[in-house]
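Dissemination and training. As part of the outreach component of the grant, students in the summer workshop were shown how a complex can be specified as a set of sequence lines and then modelled as a single object. The example used during the hands-on session is reproduced here so that future cohorts can follow it. Participants entered these lines:
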Amino acid sequence: MIRFDRATKRYPNGREALGAASFEISAGEMVFLTGRSGAGKSTILKLIALLERPTRGLVLVNGHNTSSLPARKIPAFRREIGVVFQDHRLLPERSLFDNVALPLYAAHAPLREIDKRARAALDQVGLLDRAASLPMELSVGEQQRVGIARAVVSKPKLIIADEPTGNLDPGLSLEIMDLFRRFNDVGATVVVATHDLDIVKASGLREIVVANGRVRDPGAEPELPHMEAHR
Amino acid sequence: MTGWLTRHLQAMLFAAGRLTRAPLATGFTLLVIAIALTLPAAFGLVIASVRTATGDFASAVDVTVYFKQGVTLEKAQQLAQSARERSGVDRVTLVSADEALKSFREQSGFGAALDVLGDNPLPHALDIRPNSEATTPQQMEALRRYLAAWPEVELVQVDSEWVIRLNAILELLRRLVTGTAALLGVGVLAVIGNTIRLEIYNRRAEIEVTKLVGGSNAFVRRPFLYTGLFYGLLGAALAAVLLLIALHLLGAPVGRLAASYGSSFRLLSPGWREVGSLVGVGAALGMVGAWMATARHLARIEPRA
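and obtained this result:
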């Protein structure tokens, strides 16, 4: 599903955000990317979603080599990925229904299909009765659930989330993680970047640690001293 | 096909919705576009009115040949035939002395005075109309010299100078109007392009998210193109309304002014064809302006994590 092979990302200002990272994530797996802010987690997500291309090395996602994927194929590539942000990025002037339906509109889905799937996605996150509301009428946790509904509405094979619980209290964080688990249970590959190590530990799922632009397997190496600082 | 129509209908409705949500800003933009389109349309209409009132100038360049007294009708007919055979001559009409006198009697109102004269004082004459391609000053002068060289000819009268001058003035005005229209067209493009540019930057976050969830450039661009189209269409429609209002206000005074000089000149009203052309030009400018703005600015907006 996802394969990084000595993938390096160096930005035009010379900063190396990711250095020769190699790891694989299998289809149907749920994985946490952990590490401090600026460690390189977001860069990995950007490379997966093709918001950036690697400077060197290989990034394969859903069988596509992101280094060489032509620009005209990027929209179709992104439709196979659901993205959840910490700040949820909902469109404030659009109803929850329209926010959730946006990927389906972009995919030119038939209107009947859009209606059915957007309502189903809102139902999955428990907000169907608020379909006509505007995002600002919701709590932060509810807004995040709408963001998740938008990410899953087109039934993507891969869901990536960047600090989805960053603005939430522990109770809501568990609720959001439970949603990701449910989508993973029905076959979606889920990659969650987080610095909330309690959630990671509680999940018992695989963790890919990123520190200073390097990817490390905590099961194979001693824990990095700075990681202690998060806990 | 249904999907294609649905997508365009959605983009159209979305664009129309955005315009109606900011009525004041939309209204001002439309007014600027309308004024820019009204000016050349109005000037063009005035020129068309003058052309209509003064007839077909190219064919109005006539040459009148007056024969000497004593030239017989038969001789005049021979000379008329010679004139017909000359290249560059479209039509030759022989006006006999009797016909001329009859016409003068009818039109001048001096019938009784003419009765006092014993003989007909008017000569035979030829009314010669050159081809429309043979009306340059050089060609007219060559024709005049050719005719004047006949010994039977008393006078060759070429009343073309005022026509040539008027034609030159109208051509100059036409070019000025064309130039002004082109400049104002560029202005309309700039207004629409800038409005779309601002709209793109106001909706930057929305565009980023749309691209992130798989929206293609065409999908993102479509509502902006419809916005440009609506600006152009509605601006041109408003221009047509302004033009009709101006004609309604000015038509009667212009007619009265012309009548005071004995002229039947009146301002022409735009027909459906003219209004259609105006709206078509407006729509095209709207689309082109929006396309230029989106091509330039949308590509710069890429999603960020």
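Residues 2 and 61 of chain A are 5 Å apart (CA to CA). Students were then asked to discuss how this feature might be tested experimentally.
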